[in-house]
Amino acid sequence: MKAHRPRRVLTAAALAGLTVVVAAGCGSAPDDAGAKDSKAAKAESAADLGGMDKLVEAAEKEGKLNVYALAPDWANYGEMIAAFEKKYAIEVNNEDPGGSSQGALNAAAKRKGQSRAVDALDLGTSYMQEAKKQDLLAPYKVQGWDDIPDAQKQPDASFMNNYGGFISIGCDAKAVKNCPETFKDLLKPEYRNKVALNGDPTESGSALAAVIAASLANGGSLDDAQPGLDFFQELKKKGNFVPAKSTLATIQQGETPISIDWDYLNLGYGVKLKPKGVDWQVAVPSDGLYSRYYNQGVNKYAPHPAAARLWLEFIYSPEGQNIWLKGFSRPALLDTMKKDGTADKAAVAQIPEVDGVPEEPTAEQEAKAKETVVQGWGKAVS
Amino acid sequence: MPDKTALPVPAAGSVPAAGTAAPAPPAPPVRDGGGPRRRTRRHRWPVVVPFFVFLAVCFGLPAGTMVYGAFTVLDPASGTSELSTENVSGSLSGAYATGLTGSVELSAVTALLATVIGALIAQAVVSSPRAGLRGIVVSASGVLANFSGAPLAFAFIATLGTTGTVTQLFHLDRTGFSLYSFTGLVLAYLYFMIPLMVVIVLPALDGLRAQWQEAAASCGATRSQYWRHVGIPVLTPSLVGGAVLMFGTAFASHATAAVMVGSSQPLITIQIANALNGNVLVGQENLALAMSLNMVVIALLVMAVQIPLQRRSTRWLG
């Protein structure tokens, strides 16, 4: 019977331990409630805080910036974060760099009042609209606000276009004799087992854009994505489509020698693949001209409100915008910077010239296209 | 001697237990000081309390949230949520219904193949006179059974994809073989399911005593008669239990298929992941919960087959 006492002690200890674990796991108690009501949290421009110097001062005092799902190899985000950290005494905490837009939105919505909530959001337009609907965005006008084209910003300054690009066709010029330049080309028999997407259109934004672009190239419209699905069905029937997700590894290995993706990602792949002996060519298809922008916004419940605002100022400064350009994407202030000469000319020259005006869907059109693709994709390519 | 073939129960099966978990078994009344036995019983029940707390927190809470979420719809305009069967009916129609049946088909086919092939391999090991073989097979199976997910998918792409080494070597593409098909997915799944089945079924085969075969032989039974009337019937519960576990493993797998074929082979796990955490669908969490609920229902149905058989399994292989 000696064993009883220790056993009870153990039980009590186990219970106590469990309680601690559970309490820690549920830790949603606001631990930084003051940030929301600070002066910086109400600032709608740098002027509201008394100018850029005051904003920098406040941000450096906070010393930290939480961002989410900013992949370092995506549109040059690695350099953007490093340059920001170097310029200011602020540590950037980039959580889950390979994460998704939905994950970033959750990190903003479900951590209100916590010090680990995300400060600034980089999201596709539909996710930004969702964030706005959930009242998660604080209006903020960067210094270059007036130069951002009206079509690329929200009138209430809740979010604005950040960087974007066109759907393009990447091609391993050593494995493929004649690189395809249009969607129509992709159906040629010489591309058997060669054409892939960067993921699954029911999950990946760029793969969804590829289907919409294919629809535009095949008699569809922004209101009708079905011709895009029909195109991929035909691609599959001809044996040209490879369902494996194209990555640097599959490209290098030769499994996905042709990949439809954003031009800035394909051009970035080219730089990385060159030392490995792959000649990666990128063409923007003239028959399916489709462009989309990602957006930037400040979380209303940002634990580091000044740092979040300074981050936006940095991204939209000529320095930040040129970092996007160097990563092959098109920044929102590109036209102004080309005119006033602040754009990095060498970087501008690297970006493919595009003839014609790209079509941009409205929120309703995009939602409808998603529904069509999510419901029809499996059927089209299985 | 190995114990009965303890079958790990898939996690989904534990969910309903949580509902009954909250009231811990009451302590028996103690009138007087009580003998040593009574004292023991009285003081032992708190030991299981952490377990039930664990069950309630880790299974009960998520299960409750899942059921609640599956039956609620958030009105985007007013921000209020209300009860509705919209998500559940949505999860049972269109592409999502195809995903559910696709998952069931794939799981059934792979479970059947893995059970048969795994049992044959295990029997070969048990009846082999080489003692070293067993050690090799068991440790290799242990390693291979855990080799799944994205690394496995890429290994398959590199060997059996259209430009894979094996495909090129044997000109498999001329035979019409494609890794990115139902067959390809079955092959990839079997790669980790067969070793798992070997590990699971070995103890059951050890339980077949040599004396039974000798007894059958001395009564004039042939080898096939022994298997037909003694071996297989005794093993059946273990084999069915193994098949159920195989079904559950295949049913819940996600990463291998996501990397290899994406949505081109409809699978419910991929659809749940895309609805929950993608870059395309906004605010579809409750639809994902409804799909998860469908998965739990199917897992429970399959488990229901196994429970009566498990009761029998201790009779011979004790």
UniProtKB/TrEMBL annotation, chain A:
Keyword Signal: yes
Cleaved signal peptide residues: 1-23
Protein name: Extracellular solute-binding protein
Stretches for region Disordered: 353-382
Organism encoding this protein: Streptomyces durocortorensis
Keywords: Signal
Automatic annotation (TrEMBL), chain B:
Cell location: Cell membrane
UniProt entry keywords in alphabetical sequence: Cell membrane, Membrane, Transmembrane, Transmembrane helix, Transport
The keyword tRNA processing appears for this protein: no
Domain of life per record: Bacteria
ABC transmembrane type-1 domain mapped to chain residues: 100-306
Compositionally biased tracts (Low complexity): 8-22
Protein name (record): ABC transporter permease subunit
Organism per entry: Streptomyces durocortorensis
